[in-house]
User: Which sequence fits this backbone?
């Protein structure tokens, strides 16, 4: 399992950093912001910061006797986070056009994915942590998101 986690993290970090370089190479404000967010995501994967946040919250819940029955709280937090990301996504969809729209919507989807991981609902963790070949599902999702951003940036470069 450790090998699977290592290859997943390596793939995610590499894919996000390559996408950040391609997006940032456009030198425009939106693309530089996208690049900065992608670098931050790669750092989160490299440091395990999303798992540290999860562990901190779990410890706080356990210390306050609120860990038993915490699934309802997790679902409520998940709904709130996904609603916030969804509202931001709609705002982006209405304010951006073309390749920038697709790149920003993909960034929002990746942010939602990181939040879902940090909230850590058992059934979703099982799906995201399932191996497909040498990489977990979440790694393939990171790669797919990076690929969409790279294609959007390349499309923007050609315009």
Assistant:
């Amino acid at each position: 399992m450790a090998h699977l986690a290592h290859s997943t993290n390596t793939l995610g970090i590499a894919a996000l950093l390559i996408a950040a370089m391609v997006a940032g190479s456009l030198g425009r404000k939106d693309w530089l912001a996208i690049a900065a967010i992608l670098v931050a995501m790669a750092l989160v994967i490299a440091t395990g910061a999303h798992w540290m946040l999860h562990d901190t919250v779990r410890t706080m819940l356990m210390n306050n006797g609120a860990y038993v029955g915490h699934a309802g709280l997790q679902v409520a937090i998940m709904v709130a986070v996904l609603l916030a990301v969804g509202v931001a996504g709609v705002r982006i969809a209405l304010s951006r056009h073309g390749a920038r729209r697709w790149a920003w919507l993909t960034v929002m989807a990746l942010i939602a994915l990181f939040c879902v991981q940090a909230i850590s609902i058992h059934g979703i963790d099982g799906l995201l942590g399932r191996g497909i070949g040498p990489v977990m599902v979440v790694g393939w999702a990171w790669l797919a998101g990076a690929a969409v951003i790279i294609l959007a940036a390349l499309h923007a470069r050609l315009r």
Notes: Residues 2-158 form one domain. The chain has one domain: 2-158. Residues 55 and 118 are 9 Å apart (CA to CA).
